[in-house]
Amino acid sequence: MTEISRRSALGAAAATAGGLLAATAIRDDTQAAVGTETSSEAHDDELPSFRFALGEQKPIVYSGGHFREASVLEFPAAENIAGVLVNLAPGGIRELHWHANATEWAYVISGRCQVTVADPAGHCEIVDFAAGDVWYFPRGHGHAIQAFGSDECQFIEVFENGHFSGFATFSSTDWFAHTPPEVLAKNFGVPASVFAEFPKREVFIGKGPAPEPLPSDPPFGSQNSGPLTHRYRLEAQQPQTFAGGSVRLASMKEFPLSTNMTGATMRIKPGGLREMHWHPNADEWQYYLAGRVRMTVFGAKGRSRTFDFGPGDVGYVPLGYGHYIENVGEQDAEVVLVFNSGTYQDISASGWLAGNPPELLGANFSVSPSVFAQFPKQSVFITTGKG
Ligand code: MN
Ligand code: MN
Prior knowledge:
Elements: E1 3-5, H1 10-16, H2 19-31, E2 35-36, E3 51-52, E4 60-62, E5 65-70, E6 82-88, E7 92-99, E8 104-110, E9 112-118, E10 124-130, E11 133-137, E12 142-148, E13 153-159, E14 169-171, H3 172-177, H4 181-188, E15 205-207, E16 231-233, E17 240-242, E18 245-250, E19 262-268, E20 273-278, E21 284-290, E22 293-298, E23 304-309, E24 314-317, E25 322-327, E26 333-339, E27 347-348, H5 349-354, H6 358-365, E28 382-383
Antiparallel strand pairs: 1-2, 1-23, 3-24, 4-5, 5-6, 6-13, 7-12, 7-14, 7-15, 8-11, 8-13, 9-10, 9-12, 11-16, 17-18, 18-19, 19-26, 20-25, 20-27, 20-28, 21-24, 21-26, 22-23, 22-25
Helix pairs in contact: 1-2
The site of one manganese (II) ion has 5 residues, from loops.
């Protein structure tokens, strides 16, 4: 996989030359062919890597499944959002736990699982998930996930805290193992001997008989769910379509419980371009499912970096940074996008320019205002570059 950058000698030129000379260097650099990056070491004033190969990471393996993690320890650029890729075997249980420092958003990539999630109002929603479904667990809500059916279940969990790690996970087995049996006995009103066979340490991912799927029409009064569900069926949504691809999006508007996260799936056709844009209100975290894309992130002061992404790769774009994504492969590219705000916002280059007087644009870019007559009249979102 190639990492590509436009940095070249720009830093040195900008440091030694003033005003116009530096500006000239920037323009030359931008026009130069994109070169292959040979070193991952960045100087203080340079941008960090915005790509992390999560799928190539060696997983941490348990009896019922395995997981891979990208927190700020593994992926330093992603300061505000972390991700975990989990695989559960049929019957595999991500044990009863909660997270002290982050809400959890997830997208089910394949297979099926049953989730229980307890809220502070005393509700416990029990709900089945299939590929294309999204869950959202508010910070601190207790939950468990068990795969069922004949296939492995894979999902990508995203946390709105880059410093999230296993240490902020509070597991039921860990807690019980570190509580005296007499206290457990008093707490639950049962003999202390009941706890003799309980695990002596954290299980994290265990295994048991896989549950039956829930009835699609549960008997009246059989459930104790809260007023807002933790599940949103993202792939069941009618996508927004554009010349170069399509998007399904779940902000707080579509998924009311998801007050501080927005998730989306985006498909880009071969040759398509998710146009130049930025997000005024959120960092962007990406997990690539299919295809080959190239993303460039612009970080001001003449700094931009370009990376290629394929299935299993994670990308990150800091709040406010300009970026665009081009499908450079032969097949459709698919990516899960997650933002750490419940309100989705972006500003696109095409929409921005369309809103400005041609005379101003002409003066801004030192060209004739008439040039802008052929520009799009509104945001193109995902374009093919053909009118
Ligand atoms: Mn969790
Ligand atoms: Mn974006």
